[in-house]
Amino acid sequence: MTVMVTGAGIVGTHLASALVKRGETPILFDKSLQPNSIAKLVPLDRIKMIAGDILDFEELSRVIRKNKVKVVVHTAAAIKFENSPRVGVSVNYGGTANVLEAARISDVNRIVFTSSHSVYQAWTRGWEKDEPFDEDCHIEPGNLYAATKAGSELLGTTYARKYGLEFISLRYPFIFGPWIGTTSGSANELISQIIRNVSEGMSKPIRRSFDADEFIYSIDVARSILTAIDSKKPAHDAYNIGMGEICTFERLVKLVEDIMDSSTKITLEPPGTRRRAHKGFAYRTAPASIKRAEIELGYRPIFNLEAALRDYSAWMTSSLRSPPSPE
Predict the structure, then answer these.
(1) pLDDT digits (tens, 9 = 90+) for 107-147
(2) I want to staple 69 with a disulfide (CB 3.0 to 4.6 A). Which of 64, 80, 83, 148 is the partner?
(3) Residue 155's domain is classified under what CATH number?
(4) pLDDT for position 14
(5) Residue 194: which H helix or E strand, with range?
(6) Contact yes or no for 303/311 (Cβ under 8 A)
(7) How many domains does the chain have?
(8) Residue 20, domain extent
(9) Where are the extended beta strands (E) located within 218-262?
């Protein structure tokens, strides 16, 4: 079975690594491939890299047909585009439409879509009641990025019902993990900066981008996608994926300081307020419920936050010692 992954960033590359470890040769389809960054996680001779744009429908369709792709994992997306919404919406929503249509005309069996917890508005049942929220919570995106994820989910489930495609959305919190390339996401940028500052003995303030939120390690992200690829016949089209714990900004910094056994103490900005949550869970009091994914997909995280930060800190420390190589 040939698996094609759109997007060769942190998620796509970790997934490629997981697929290679079980003997498969995945295809990475990305407009701006970063081979040196990819090679840090997966041997390049074990994967197939194709430079292509998901907005180029003809090329996308040709690659799928030529390689007899049976599963498409759609991770490619614009992340930060509040100042250029037309471009972001075109890539995220238009790109998903292209993937779905290319799959429809090319006999693809299943599409796995990487979505986000941000599709839930801040004042959902889980946030208000301090208890895990499930997939039945109201979908009401709080920003443009979340809106494109929610819209793509709706488009995918509609295609599935009308044309018989199998479409599965996996909703993630902030993702972080080993990756030296660009397009790593705000969580990875934040955590890597904290690790770097502690490692180098710099105590300068880190910009507070959240007060309390949920994270997931990239290795568990890849594992969750494998469960969605392998599941015989999922009963639902959307699943929450996560660690099952909420972390405050203060705890995140303290964990890194303790893990690295450093005397360096990062200066913290004052906390924000719960009202900031309208921007997408800036202050969350409850994690996502992952019971549906546990029961139906067999997914369970193997990394809690401390274990993930310990693994990532060790990887980053090793990477920092190695001279950077240009892409």
Answers:
(1) 999 999 999 998 986 544 344 557 788 998 888 887 899 99
(2) 64
(3) 3.40.50.720
(4) 98
(5) helix 186-199
(6) yes
(7) 1
(8) 2-178+217-244+285-303
(9) 238-240, 246-248
